[in-house]
Each structure stands twice: as structure tokens, then as C-alpha cells.
Design goal:
The chain is of the alpha+beta class and about 220 residues long. It folds into two domains: about 1-50; about 60-205, Beta Barrel (Lipocalin). Helix content is about 25%, strand content about 30%. It is built from three helices and nine strands, in the order ααββββββββαβ. The protein has helices at about 10-50, 60-65, 180-195, and strands at about 65-75, 85-95, 100-105, 110-120, 130-135, 145-155, 160-165, 170-175, 205. Strands 1-2-3-4-5-6-7-8 form an eight-stranded antiparallel barrel. The protein starts with 10 loop residues before the first helix and ends in a 14-residue tail after the last strand. The relative contact order is 0.17.
């Protein structure tokens, strides 16, 4: 209702209109924030479900697990970029309960690359979760020099094993011989795929005839 002859609205009318506009804007922003929160919660829920750790085997007999393994396949990674074939890993028990690790492989120039490290068990109940360190011993107090090594699957006769990391970024298929049958390889891949690993990333590792005792990797 106008308050003067010129038809100008009253002050209280202006204040009322402004208040209504502010309330409407607050409601709009509150609704937007509520929607954003719901979306964030939904995305977070999805990430939690996706990020759940893979399951390891129920138990690893370390006495049977130690020895030499041939790398059958792996997810490509930076620290093995120099390895083009004959990748092996040799594990040796120690008196202190840890395991010596000797990784060898053939490089592009035909030489043998060797890395020596140590592994420690982080889950004494299953002995399926370990950490491996290749950094010098004086750096062993630093958490980031230890890398996860989880045994995700192992053949009943310990003829092959699947090793990975909880974030699913790394995967290795290992065997006691330089090759697996197709059925065994597919079984190893299937066990990793069931744990959420993108097995399409797996690359087969070539081995020369007779290679073994002098070549190795993680």
C-alpha cells in the first residue's frame, strides 16, 4: 500500500519485503548446503565401500613359503621398470623371525639387477600380512621405508601365490616354476579379481629357459 501521493511504499513495507527476501535466500542456501552434504555423504560412503581392504589368506606357513619364487605376472610399477624378464624372489628365514629378501631380474642390457631387503610379519595370527624394506637398516625406524606385502591367495601345495597391497595398486603372481598352466594362471587372476584388483593391468613376465637360480623380484 503506498504511503504518499507519489505512490512510494511505506518504510515498514520495504523492511518486510527485504526481510522476506533474506529469509528466502537463507532457505535457498540451506537447501543447497543440505543437498551438498547429502551428495558428499553418498560419495564418502561409496569411497569407504570401494576402499575396504582385500582379504588375505587365513594362514601362511612361512616354513613352506620361504624359498625361491618366479614372478609370473605383475602390475607395472616404477621400482621394477628396469626388469624385462627372469624376475625371481628368494626368501630366507632368519633366527630373529624376520625374512631375508633377495630380488633379482634381467635388465634391458642383459645384466642381473639385485635388491636385498628384509621382511617382517605384521599379523602374527595369520602371518599373511608382511612389510618389506629395501632401505638401509638405519632407516628402518621410518614407517615409509616399509612396503606392504599381503598374501592374498596361495595354492594348497604352495605352487603359486598371489601377493598385493591393501590399496590394490600393486599385484604379483608368483610360482615355484617359471611358468604356470593356463588353468593355474587363470585361477590366480580370478582370486585377485574377486578381491577388487583390476587384473587387466597384469603383465606377464618372460623367463629364459634355464633361468632361475640366478635371477629375482618382489
Amino acid at each position: 500500500m503506498p504511503c504518499d501521493a507519489a505512490g512510494n511504499p511505506c518504510d515498514h513495507t520495504l523492511r518486510s519485503s527485504a526481510a522476506q527476501a533474506i529469509v528466502a535466500e537463507m532457505d535457498r542456501r540451506a537447501s543447497a548446503r543440505a543437498l551438498a552434504l547429502l551428495v558428499a555423504l553418498a560419495l564418502a560412503s561409496g569411497r569407504v565401500a570401494q576402499a575396504s581392504d582385500p582379504r588375505t589368506v587365513e594362514s601362511v606357513d612361512l616354513g613352506r613359503y620361504v624359498g625361491q619364487w618366479f614372478e609370473i605376472a605383475r602390475f607395472p610399477n616404477d621400482f621394477q621398470s628396469q626388469c624385462v624378464g627372469n624376475v625371481t624372489a628368494t626368501y630366507q628365514s632368519r633366527d630373529d623371525g624376520r625374512i631375508d629378501v633377495i630380488n633379482r631380474c634381467r635388465t634391458t642390457n642383459g645384466e642381473v639387477d639385485e635388491a636385498v631387503g628384509v621382511a617382517r610379519v605384521t599379523d602374527p595370527q595369520t602371518r599373511a600380512k608382511l612389510e618389506v624394506r629395501f632401505a638401509p637398516a638405519f632407516l628402518s625406524f621410518l614407517p615409509f621405508v616399509w612396503g606392504d606385502y599381503w598374501v592374498l591367495a596361495v595354492d594348497p601345495e604352495y605352487r603359486w601365490a598371489v601377493v598385493g597391497t591393501p590399496d590394490r595398486s600393486y599385484l604379483w603372481i608368483l610360482a615355484r616354476a617359471p611358468a604356470l598352466t593356463d588353468a593355474e594362471y587363470q585361477a590366480a587372476l580370478a582370486s585377485a579379481a574377486a578381491q577388487g584388483f583390476d587384473v587387466a593391468r597384469a603383465v606377464r613376465t618372460p623367463h629364459d629357459t634355464g633361468a632361475g637360480a640366478d635371477t629375482a623380484a618382489r
